[in-house]
Amino acid sequence: MPSGEPREVGLAIIGGGCSGIAMAAQLRAQGVDDFVILERDADLGGTWRDNSYPGCACDVQSSLYSFSFAPNPEWTRTFSPQAEIWAYLRRVVEQLDLHRHFVFSQNVHGARWSNKESRWVISTSGGEWRATALVLASGALSDPVVPELDGLSEFQGRVFHSAQWDHAFTLENARVAVIGTGASAIQFVPRIQPQVAHLHLFQRSAPWVLPRHDRAVPEWRKRLYQSMPATQRAARAALYAMRELIFLPFRHTQLIGLAESVAQWHLKSQIKDASLRLKLTPAYRLGCKRVLVSDDYYPAVAQPNVSLVTQPIARVNARGIQTIDGAQHEVDAIIFGTGFRPTDPPLAPYIAGRDGRTLADAWQGGASAYRGTTVAGFPNFFVLLGPNTGLGHTSILLMVEAQTRHVAQVLAAMEQRGASTVEPTHEAQRTFALWIDTNLAGTVWNTGGCRSWYLDANGRNSTLWPFGIGRFRRLMSRLDERDYTFASAHAWPESS
What we know:
FAD/NAD(P)-binding domain; eight-stranded mixed beta sheet; 18% strand
């Protein structure tokens, strides 16, 4: 761990979750060994380390939500639970000998590009680092959002976010308020409902929920994958193709009706009470917000000890939550299932590029990056799962791997040219952003009749990729060097 004098390194990766691990694996595959992974916690894993709430699991099948370079024949369920995914990530790091690149308890406070040194100067809780290149791999689901509710500080019970689950709190016979009905809540609500005395579920808008069809992986299938790895690759390929088909209704809105009919059947078959079913019926097109998958959420909401509250919250007081109709909901704990900040990266205000402007400054008109990965004015800088790389239909790890291969291509081109810096041109980035916006314009994500976290403060969809993953992978496999500026050391004047 550095102390006193700054430590020099070829490349620094911020974040030790899935993206950081994938980037490290790609670098090692390219023969690059001079890099570190700066991880703010004392262990690796990112999202799959932090989110330990009851029922936490992936909503993409295990065979696809795993690295292509590290297949795992030991998954126990179709959709892997959090503990298994976290263990898988630790195992991948061990198998690829990546652990020696990790530097833990390095909370990054900021990073700035020095034109004088042609280096990134990175300030962390453990000291200062200088790196030729910087990869931001902190992920889109790393910092939870807690809404600013009037009177929250007055509440005398327990308060926590699902991403910071308070395992010391005893749910047995407690009165619990859950605020939010997104991807996390529909997983933990069925788990805590049988334990609590009463659950007050505060729903702002009803989500679309499709059947999950989760099941245990039979032992014979595990043995087959172990003895014949090609069979697991074939299963992965089939899942890949199936999920590419799932994408079509999102882009071609005339096909959404079929998916909506499946979701409506799922709701009707599990909720018999007509008035409750009406409350759980979405008022927007499927796909406008994240589509959820669950086999047990609706049955849990229908239980006698659950109250679905659709009235907006007026304020919180010492004993509970008051809604705008004047009703008082007395509870012992408030659990937020209110998601994260995908359109507002927490480190954006603290990463300064060539002219001293921060990412937050550069993104005031909406976050934008060339191919979702590089940013004009930020030399030797790469962001994984950056603007417009989100997906609503398949494994995000496919996106990450395509990006890491592209990063390796750009770094190799810089080395071949004998250049010290590389960044996309402003024109290339503008053209790419316009192309993205044009192709998102007619999709359900932009026209589905809702206000989702896909849209940033300016109303721009800066989150999602508008096509199938296959198109992104093909795009990222081609490096057009004309879209980049390659320069020698000290080509730029030192910023103030």
